[in-house]
Specification:
heterodimer; A: 96 residues; alpha/beta; 3-stranded parallel beta sheet; 2 helices; 4 strands; 26% helix; elongated; B: 370 residues; alpha+beta; 60s Ribosomal Protein L30, Chain: A; 4-stranded mixed beta sheet; 13 strands; globular
């Protein structure tokens, strides 16, 4: 019978994510929708399709659409700040 | 600092298994902690031996590895280094490579998660490369040297086990790459006619350093006929002018690896900076080599200032500025060089090997616990 041996686990656990649980307060005129186009081919078409779908279901007060220049790089801080300031919800998408 | 035994008391820090090589390897595969090759069991004793070459707290993260953003502690890194077959004295350089590739300019999140086939390439310079016998000569990218094979493998295991670059989950590469098993070499400083890569990138000659690049595999440049600097540099530039690489769409930093024979020929007529300029001006692809869809959807947008209405003979450069081109001298005898395209949305990172007190390390023995 083999002896038992202790092994060091090489895997890092996923960081604990804190879920946002409070109810978002949305103005009476409808939600402020943000859209982040990642510049992937056809992302703009897909996002327009989704925005139209949201508008058909919910009152939408405004839509702010921004685009990052590179598929592969994170969105610059200025874009994220603007989306955070002017949006209640943000949609982004992959395409192609 | 807590002892290793105390750290392993933490929930999930260790597991028990039958002391049987095959059973342990089966367990590692089942857990998804293997690269498919057999691993060395990361026993407490082996991990402790690895950590003898770590002068920092073993339970404090030195970096967070995307896309999982797992915390890379020396303890976890040591377990992966043991599994890869590293000697304990490799550990300081391994930690440095992990730290360097997690710095923001490299965009490791993109390199790890992309559908592209890139992997972090580590080029080692300085006295520690020689101390650890990291191959820089014949077959430098191939098998045969423990340091190249196992440090590179330990990096991949950490990228998977700590960073979550699990194929088809966190790593969405369409093809993957043999470079995702191991991708680490040293520069052949002894055979180079130019200043070493780490010196060119701002470090003192006596420093030991890594330069990390989010790179494809090397593509060979065969030139047995050229007898002049202009000849060999023209062939290299010509090889770089291809339509399907990411670099043509980014201000990226691709790499030219010059075999020592080609490098000496080039250096007879050019400084390194002059060689870069020569290559940059001639390494381009004609717009007419691209599909009309690529021209309409990418070229006209990316190069809107210069190529809003491009003609077929207009060119797109393989590297946008001469100073962005990296040149390293690697390899043995033979009239070959290599072109290493990159992920594009990535910048190289060069870092010196330093002890915890911030001094340049002269030897890996500087890290050994007394």
């Amino acid at each position: 019978m083999n002896q038992r041996v202790r092994l060091v686990v090489p895997e890092a656990p996923s960081p604990q994510a804190v879920a946002v649980t409070e109810t978002r307060v949305v103005a009476k005129g409808g939600i402020r929708l943000g859209v982040l186009d990642n510049s992937k081919g056809n992302a703009d078409y897909l996002l327009r399709f989704i925005v139209d779908g949201v508008k058909a279901l919910l009152p939408v007060a405004s839509v702010v659409s921004l685009r990052k220049d590179s598929v592969s790089l994170p969105a610059p801080g200025a874009i994220l700040d603007q989306l955070a300031a002017e949006s209640d919800y943000v949609i982004t998408a992959m395409a192609d | 600092m807590s002892s290793l035994a105390q750290m392993l008391q933490a929930s999930g820090a260790s597991i028990e298994a039958d002391d049987d090589f095959e059973a342990i390897n089966a367990l590692m595969r089942e857990k998804g902690w293997s690269d498919g090759l057999p691993i060395v069991p990361p026993t407490e004793a082996r991990v402790a031996a690895m950590l003898e070459y770590c002068d920092r707290p073993w339970d404090q993260p030195i970096a967070k590895i995307p896309p999982r953003w797992g915390e890379a502690t020396p303890l976890l890194l040591a377990a992966n280094a043991v599994m890869a077959g590293c000697q304990p004295r490799y550990f300081p350089l391994y930690m440095l490579a992990i730290e360097a590739m997690c710095e923001e300019p490299l965009n490791l999140y993109g390199v790890q998660a992309t559908t592209h086939l890139c992997a972090p390439l580590v080029i080692v310079n300085g006295p520690v490369a020689r101390e650890l016998d990291i191959n820089c000569g014949h077959n430098a990218f191939g098998p045969g040297h423990q340091a190249n094979a196992t440090i590179g493998r330990a990096i991949r295991l950490a990228l998977v086990n700590i960073g979550g670059a699990i194929p088809a989950l966190g790593d969405m590469s369409t093809f993957g790459s043999p470079a995702k098993y191991s991708y680490l070499v040293a520069e052949n400083e002894a055979e180079s006619p130019w200043e070493p890569l780490h010196v060119e990138r701002g470090l003192p000659l006596e420093a030991s350093a890594v330069t990390v690049i989010g790179a494809e595999c090397p593509h060979n440049v065969n030139d047995h006929e050229s007898l002049t600097a202009e000849g060999v540099l023209t062939t290299i530039a010509g090889t770089m002018g291809i339509a399907g690489v990411n670099d043509i769409y980014y201000q990226s930093h691709p790499l030219v690896i010059m075999g020592p024979e080609h490098a000496k020929m080039a250096a007879a007529g050019y400084t390194k900076a002059e060689a870069k300029r020569f290559i940059q001006q001639r390494a381009h692809v004609a717009v007419g080599k691209l599909s009309q869809e690529n021209i309409d959807r990418r070229v006209k947008i990316t190069f809107k200032d210069r190529l809003a209405n491009p003609k077929p003979d207009d060119v797109i450069y393989a590297v946008q500025r001469p100073e962005d081109l990296l040149i390293a001298v690697i390899g043995g005898a033979g009239k070959h060089s290599a072109y290493v395209p990159t992920f594009g949305a990535t910048l190289p990172v060069t870092r010196a090997l330093k002890t915890a007190d911030g001094k340049l390390a002269k030897s890996v023995e500087d890290f050994r616990r007394r």
